[in-house]
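Page 47, continued from p. 46.
Same chain as before, 201 aa.
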Amino acid sequence: MPERSKYSCTLTGASFLFFELKQVVLLKEQGLQDSEIREKVRAENLFGYKVKSSIKRSLPSVLRRINALDDTLRQMVIEKSLETGKIINLYAIMKTDRLFFEFMNEVVRDKFERNDYHLDRKDVNVFITAKAEQDETVALWTEKTVDRLKQAYVKVLFDAGIVRDRKTGELNRILMDEELKRHLVHIGDIAYVKAMGEWVA
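Result:
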């Protein structure tokens, strides 16, 4: 489970960023250090952003996620299917964002366990409201920040393939690669596998 880090709302400015993650994984595999990666991404605009200043917002999150992955998972991002890469990215987001992990574990996992394939705005509202009552950091967030965070959560789930339709909130079970599932269980991250709605014997 993620260390007891503070709750954060960084997903409002970071979101899924799978294309960016893949670019940086390739640089990591070439042996580049984080500082060299920052320089190369900015100098060559490897993310292809129209506004280069956007790199400053997204790159720290991408690096945090990549540094949460071991060598095996980084290799899988490069070698496995697009779907598997996206699931690894979702796992990395959960590893680096305590609040999002808790959302997956307490809301999404619960939905799948009850065979309820519909995520309502109310579900996200209830979750955030409950956290605001328990935690001062969340309680201090503005309504605008909370709204953007809710949108970011749904977008991440949509990009990961868990939300099939953003308008209706229809949910979709992911099909996790068996090798990936075995590896995550082996390294002690069974909680993340379950949070994504996967059944583990």
